[in-house]
Amino acid sequence: MQSDMQMSQSQGQDQSISSGEGSENKEPTLVKKVTSTAVKLALLQSMGDMSALFERKGTQNVLLPYLISFMNDSDIEVRAAFCRHIPVLGKLLGPVATEGIILPCFEQAILDSEERVSEAAVQGLADIVTDHVLPPKAYPSILRHVPPLLLFPARQVRTNALRLLRAICDQLPIEKQLVSVFPMLKPCLAFEIVSVDELPAALLAPLSRQTFMLLKENVEVRDAVLSSEGSIDANLLPLKLAPSFDNPMSGAEGDEIVKVETNVRAITQKRAEEQRGDDLAALVVLRQFLRSLLGRAKDRNAKPPKDMSNSSAEVLVPLDLHRVQAPKGNPFVKANQPLQVRAELRRLMPQNQGVEEDSTQREDVPLKNMIIAARGIYFIS
Q1: Which of 122-131, 150-159, 286-295 comes out lowest in average pLDDT?
Q2: Mean of the pLDDT values across residues 66-78?
Q3: How far apart are CA 127 and CA 168, in angstroms?
Q4: pLDDT 10s digits, 5-28
Q5: Residues with Cβ within 8 Å of residue 321, at least 6 apart in sequence
């Protein structure tokens, strides 16, 4: 009996030792695996509370890179939720990190093949500008996206774009608006404006949904329209004629019916030609934007995303980021070191071998290398 107890105790000790050795080889991560869309949405919705827990340094170095990886998710709601909730981090991270890390994510999301993501991206940009987080020097980069968005077929995208433009103009003096903002809007205006309040009346007609779907579904028409430079041949777009009326004039007889039907056809033909003219004018403004947008949609359809149910998203802690960034350059060269790598090197290497920085820049000023690192993380699959 005693021998059996001794054997069981020794086996338990061996198992505990082997498990302890295995655990030492595992790198610590904040979250091991996240595969559920509901969990990702819950994380994004609680981003404000999580950022308060991580504080500024932890949010920038650990939480934000992990959340940016959600932009590669195949679920539309996850990508849209990221754009809606990420602006809450703007005030915590500051203007430099927001411009360098978060703004590029929005610029990519605007070109998403799903309209709900594009709509959320424009909404998120408007929220960040409204919160006075971005520096004024970042506005020209944002304004170049506004003209095509103001003529986009989706009404909510146009509404959010107008809100974004108003938020920018509210932070600039009228002189700056006349010199820097309104000239960039000239391609999408029927006449010049001197105030943002005049914009809704001056805008060209937006691209119709029928023409947008035609370009999206018909490869030949899309290539012919978007590959051209300058004016677009009107014959490339078919006339969208309304259904004819079987009896346009009740009680009429003989020549009266023929006359009314002829007038109806003429009016319908004229309206269809006017609509096609409006679409051609809008396509001149939207052409470059649609090249990128529909090109991404074609790539997504040609190469479907991986099945996320069998994959996992892991937190990119400093050791993981070091491994990701190592192939991009020598990590011991200062220009190639993101902040996470520098922190890891300071911990592992002697002071005389590590790359030292000014103490005022370690925490308060996100360097350009962190910006490069975040842009690289965006495309991690």
Answers
A1: 286-295
A2: 89
A3: 11
A4: 454 445 444 444 444 444 344 434
A5: 65, 338, 340, 341, 373, 377
CA-closest candidate to residue 66, choices 51, 88, 49: 51
pLDDT tens for each residue of 211-264: 999 998 888 888 888 887 777 888 888 777 655 444 444 444 555 555 666 777
Rounded to whole angstroms, how far apart are CA atoms 213 and 10? 71
CA 162/CA 206 separation, integer angstroms: 13
Q: What is the 3-state secondary structure (H, E, C) of the chain?
A: CHHHHHHHHHHHHHHHHHHHHHHHHCCCCCCCCCCCHHHHHHHHHCHHHHHHHHHHHHHHHHHHHHHHHHHHCCCHHHHHHHHHHHHHHHHHHCHHHHHHHHHHHHHHHHCCCCHHHHHHHHHHHHHHHHCCCCCHHHHHHHHCCHHHHHCCCCHHHHHHHHHHHHHHHHCCCHHHHHHHHHHHHHHHECCCCCCHHHHHHHECCCCCHHHHHHHHHCHHHHHHHHCCCCCCCHHHCCCCCCCCCCCCCCCCCCHHHHHHHHHHHHHHHHHHHHHHHHHHHHHHHHHHHHHHHHHHHHHHHHCCCCCHHHCCCCCCCHHHHHHHHHHHCCCCCHHHCCHHHHHHHHHHCCCCCCCCCCHHHHCCCCCHHHHHHHHHHHCCC
Q: What CATH code is assigned to 37-202?
A: 1.25.10.10
**Token pair 């790539």: residue:** 299
Helix axis angle for 115-130 and 76-85, nearest 10°, is 10
Q: Is 230 left (phi over 0), alpha (psi -120 to 50) or beta?
A: left
Q: Which amino acid is at 152?
A: F
Q: Where are the domains of the chain?
A: 37-202, 318-378
Print burial letters for 189-219: b (CB count within 10 Å at least 16), e (below 16).
beeebeebeebeeebbebbbeebbebbbeee
- What does pTM read for this prediction? 0.65
